[in-house]
Amino acid sequence: MSLTRRFYDILAEILHETQDLGAGASLLQTDRVMAERFAISESTARNWRRGKSGQIAPATARAIIARCRELAPQRVSDLQFIDQLSRGAHEVKLAAETLVNQLESHVLSNGASWHIYSGPLKIAFDTSIDAIRRRQLLSRSSMIVERIFEIGIDKSDIPCLSELIRYSMHGWYVDGFYATRIASLSNRTSGIYDGYLGAVEEALYLGDGCAVPCMISGDVEQAHRYTQNALEILDAATPTDERQSAISIRDAQIMIRAIQAMIACHRAGPEDVEQVARFAREFENSTADVGWIEGTRHEALGYAALVMRVSYPNAAHHFEQAGAHLDRWLAQFDIPFSSTSSQSLGGYARLLIDGPTPQVKSEISDGLLRTIDLGTVSHEIRARLCQSRFYERSEDGKLAAFHRNRAQELVERHHLQRWYTMVNRILTP
Fold first, then answer.
1. By the number of CB atoms within 10 A of the CB, which of 71, 79, 256, 348 ranks highest?
2. Angle at CA 26, nearest 5°, toward 24 and 29?
3. CA-to-CA distance for 353 and 346, rounded, in angstroms?
4. Burial level of 407, CB count in 10 A (0-12/13-18/19+)?
């Protein structure tokens, strides 16, 4: 989306907030009211809406921003940012440096870093950061990366660009924006294919950054290809690549293999059965150094035990360990708990062992609350499915239907039908 279209959209939102525009106003009505309210021509408003204007005249932008200080002071910073970004390379560089400083103020003061996971996840999960503010930071990061690509700024001229790329890739945690990380890797601005972020980090972004959202979007074949690409990169990685990374090659391989196993659990084709069994044999007793990766290993082993139907106690153990490792790892950054659905999945495995006991209900319900508070859409959907299964076993059809319907509403809203079908199959013993 062009910067002028973003500018237009914010002005339209302001007009709705001030009730200058009613609900259901047409495009032509919006153009007309915007022109009258901000002293621009209707053709200018129309061109902004269509994204045809490459830049907003400085005098026009200043006049509109001055008007918005009276109408909607809370939106002024967004308009100023877009106006700044529409200028040349110097202003884009300044905007990038300013944003990175803002991001780091939330992270580095608490001992985290921007290496691969910790910084972006701190921003995504930190309850001390207002949700609207998180979305604003994500939007600004994406706009800067797009703008750098659009006007052809040499990425070496903006040393902080890698931090913005990392944040954009992990920003999908906010409201479940699954395509964000894939899109961040899809253009040459990131430099991901020429080692700009390092071989180990490149492999993790292709594997975790692209494969997981692909799987949740339902494209398991593409998700598997991403993991294969990531493993090939790690196979060719050198000791020098490892020294430049905060994560070892071995840990990165564990992460990608775990993701690959979870993809196989969801795909559940004839060729996947052996892959899942092989992962369980090879990684049952391996451990990763990084807590986030160790938690992912346990989660993959939990999925493997579920789909192979061999040991529900083993599944419950691994999901419990997954949650514990993720909780401890995130706690060092003052993040209160992991928002993944490991706890709900652990409760579901216990349900298959013990039936609908009060302890099982507590575990599944607590897992659902975590995902509602801090989780992505997919985490909440899985947790609601586990909750629904509990009430089915309790013969409470009303509550079972309630959670199933809420899950289906999220699925339809975010177009996750294919993934939902796969998850349902996993959670149907």
1. 348
2. 120
3. 11
4. buried
Residue type, 129: I
Tell me the two tokens of residue 378. 């997919």
This prediction has a pTM of 0.77
Cα separation, 307 vs 38, whole angstroms: 60
Nearest to 49 by CA among 25, 66, 84: 25
In order of 129, 180, 239, 353, the CA distances from 85 in angstroms are: 24, 20, 39, 57
Please give the C-alpha separations between residue 172 and each of 3, 67, 210, 327, in angstroms, as whole numbers.
21, 33, 11, 20
Burial class, 270, CB count within 10 angstroms (exposed 0-12 / middle 13-18 / buried 19+): exposed
Q: For 205-258, what is each residue's pLDDT tens digit? A: 888 878 888 899 889 999 999 999 999 999 999 999 898 888 899 999 999 999
Whole-number Å distance between alpha carbons of 296 and 283 = 12
Q: Could you tell me the two tokens for 305?
A: 């035990």
Residue among 39, 93, 87, 42 nearest 65 (CA): 39
Q: Which residue has the tokens 């909607």?
A: 72
The answer for residues whose C-beta is within 8 angstroms of residue 12's C-beta and 6 or more apart is 21, 30, 34
User: How big is the CA angle at 380 (ends 376 and 386), to the nearest 5 degrees?
Assistant: 150
Whether 416 contacts 410, CB under 8 Å: yes
| Distance of alpha carbon 117 from alpha carbon 296, whole angstroms | 13
- The answer to whether the beta carbons of residues 411 and 417 sit under 8 Å apart is yes
Domain boundaries of the chain, sorted by first residue: 1-87, 89-197, 206-328, 339-429
Query: Cβ–Cβ contacts within 10 Å for residue 411, how many?
Result: 19
